[in-house]
């Protein structure tokens, strides 16, 4: 699902609506193209609580100095303010994607090299460049922990394993969906949830073709696409494995420079942007995408309008809002 599909989607979206979309056309098309984020799934509350505890605990790393939250800052919309993760190999340093709404993506990571949250969690713990903890030591640490041993025994029984850790982490991460953004409230019928300026930004987001790749529940995250349809965005930079995209995994020439399309949910809060963290601002990201993906240069007014629309996609997971509210009540 790469360029051909994206062009087909774009043609279908635009064929019947040349020029600026009318308000009624916009209402019709957004109900097909973007849908609200679903509520968090029902799951074992004990698993969710265990996963939440593990997510922020450096006990899962070799030197006990890094946790999942070290890179996926839950107060920072599940992302990292660094351009790339310095722990990774110098030629494969990638920007840390947000963990918010990650359960809605069809593949995980910029290169789509993981299919499930469980797989991603286990690989991150074992990866020497990330957590670097072996299975035996992990199990031993959790068995020796007065805090964790009874929790694992009650939920899973027996000796804690890396699969059980991954299962608890994925139970928590599935709760990190962000329903109730202003745009989702608009989709649900609240016409006052967004301003006329923001609605105009959404119309231009559709009209210029952004929506060909950024649609669905996650406004992205559901297909692969080449970064640089109109030109090479890496031409002025030293070559690196990171720029190869999926080619580094599949060695299929058709996958050179192909990445999983990122979600635009909470995009206004998760700078810097792109797989290499090379753009610091939302306006800059919109300008770069319009040139290399759409083959057009947007003026500053268009960029500002689209940015206004994208800010309506901001929301926090209910599980974290509940924690925030509890913290405020204690002060």
TrEMBL record:
Binds 2 heme groups. Keywords: Heme, Iron, Metal-binding, Oxidoreductase, Periplasm, Peroxidase, Signal. Pfam families: CCP_MauG. Its cofactor is heme. Heme c 1 binds at residues 68, 71-72. Its main location: periplasm. Binds 2 heme groups per subunit. Residues 1-22 form the signal peptide. Gene3D superfamilies: Cytochrome c-like domain. It is found in: Periplasm. GO terms for molecular function: cytochrome-c peroxidase activity; electron transfer activity; heme binding; metal ion binding. Heme c 2 binds at residues 210, 213-214, 289. Residues 46-153, 196-314 form the Cytochrome c domain. This is Cytochrome c peroxidase. It comes from Arboricoccus pini. One of its GO terms (cellular component) is periplasmic space.
């Amino acid at each position: 699902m790469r360029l051909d599909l994206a062009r087909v989607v774009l043609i279908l979206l635009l064929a019947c609506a040349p020029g600026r979309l009318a308000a009624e056309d916009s209402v019709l098309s957004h109900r097909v193209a973007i849908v609200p984020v679903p509520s968090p799934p029902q799951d074992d509350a004990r698993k969710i609580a265990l996963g939440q505890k593990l997510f922020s605990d450096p006990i899962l790393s070799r030197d006990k100095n890094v946790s999942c939250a070290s890179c996926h800052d839950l107060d920072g919309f599940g992302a990292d303010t660094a351009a790339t993760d310095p722990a990774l190999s110098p030629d494969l340093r990638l920007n840390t994607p947000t963990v918010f709404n990650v359960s809605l993506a069809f593949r995980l990571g910029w290169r789509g090299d993981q299919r499930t949250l469980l797989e991603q969690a286990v690989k991150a713990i074992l990866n020497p460049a990330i957590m670097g903890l072996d299975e035996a030591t992990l199990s031993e640490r959790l068995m020796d922990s007065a805090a964790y041993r009874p929790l694992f025994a009650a939920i899973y029984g027996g000796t804690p394993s890396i699969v059980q850790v991954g299962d608890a982490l994925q139970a928590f991460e599935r709760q990190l969906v962000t329903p109730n953004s202003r745009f989702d409230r608009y989709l649900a019928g609240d016409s006052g949830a967004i301003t006329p300026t923001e609605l105009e930004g959404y119309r231009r987001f559709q009209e210029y073709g952004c929506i060909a790749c950024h649609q669905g529940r996650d406004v992205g995250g559901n297909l692969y696409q080449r970064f640089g349809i109109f030109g090479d965005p890496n031409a002025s930079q030293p070559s690196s494995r990171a720029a190869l995209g999926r080619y580094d995994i599949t060695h299929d020439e058709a996958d050179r420079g192909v990445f999983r399309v990122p979600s635009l949910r909470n995009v206004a809060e998760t700078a810097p942007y792109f797989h290499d963290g090379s753009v610091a601002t939302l306006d800059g990201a919109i300008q770069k995408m319009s040139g290399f993906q759409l083959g057009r240069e947007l003026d500053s007014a268009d960029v500002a309008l689209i940015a206004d629309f994208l800010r309506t996609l901001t929301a926090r997971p209910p599980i974290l809002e509940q924690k925030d509210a509890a913290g405020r009540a204690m002060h």
